[in-house]
Amino acid sequence: MQKTNEVNDDENTQIEVDTYAEEQSGRFRRSGIFFLKVSFFFVVLFALFMFGLSLMLSISVDAIENIQNKMDQINSWLMFVRWLMITVVITYWIEINTWLAKHKSWSKAHLNRVVNGRWSALGVFVFIEAIFIQRIHEPVITFFINLFS
């Protein structure tokens, strides 16, 4: 009687070990794919960095100033295009996320959370535009620096 219990315990332990091994191999496979994706990202990033560095070294300063002047000339059009893209994304938010949910197999609860986050996303878009693109914080910082110096 005692021997059969030992056998059952060994079998249960073996089943637990096999299940654990399967779970871990799945994790390793997923982490391996993640590692490949991250490695690919950094290789592409390095290649773009080297490309940009080679362009900087090969282009004269006058050409860079001309590019800067042309960017200043089309700045208002670029701002219009950015705001148009933000408006289109917010307007078609439900359709875009419904399409993504269908193709990415999102659950209904996840889709509802994302759809209800439209105004939060608009806030993030406006914040990024105001701080990083328009740099509306710079006059305030300059004012305080001049005030205290």
Question: How would you describe this protein?
Answer:
The protein is mostly helical and 149 residues long. The chain folds into two domains: 58 residues; 90 residues, no CATH class. The protein is built from seven helices and no strands. α4 packs antiparallel against α5. The protein is extended. The N terminus is likely disordered.
Features:
7 helices; 2 domains; extended; 149 residues; 0% strand; mainly alpha
Mean pLDDT: 82
Category from helices, strands and their pairing: mainly alpha
Rg, please? Answer: 28 Å
Number of domains: 2
Strand content: under 5%
Approximate helicity band: over 70%
Care to count the β-strands? 0
Number of helices: 7
The helix/strand series, from N terminus to C terminus, equals: HHHHHHH
Q: Report the sheet with the most strands, covering strand number, pairing sense and barrel closure.
A: none
What general outline do the C-alpha atoms trace? extended
Cα end-to-end separation: 89 Å
In terms of per-residue confidence, which ranges show pLDDT below 50 for 5 or more consecutive residues? 1-5
Topology of helices and strands:
Blueprint: H1 2-58, H2 61-73, H3 75-91, H4 93-104, H5 108-116, H6 118-133, H7 138-148
Short summary:
The chain is mainly α and 149 residues long. The protein is built from seven helices and no strands.
